[in-house]
Amino acid sequence: MDLVTIRHANLYAELMAFVGHPDPTVGPEPPPLYVSSCRWTPNAAGTRARLEAWSHPMAVGQPLPALPIWLPDAQSVLLDLERGYEQACEDLSIP
To answer: pTM for the whole thing?
Structure first.
């Protein structure tokens, strides 16, 4: 999650362009607030690995998205950011 609001750039879009996989879903003006998850998936011997990526724009006042976080052995965990945020606020007694 990139919450740097003092610069107007999208690190995810820049990274995708840098590795040669621009994400067409972010458009010519990528959102400044977003969350993303990426992983390289190995292919059969002798072939190129594949980049899989998930990106969601975020907006102030809107619920946070959920996205996969990949673990070894092709296992993933769905990271529900909204539920985690709500739990942290409850644990810290933040209204």
So the answer is: 0.65
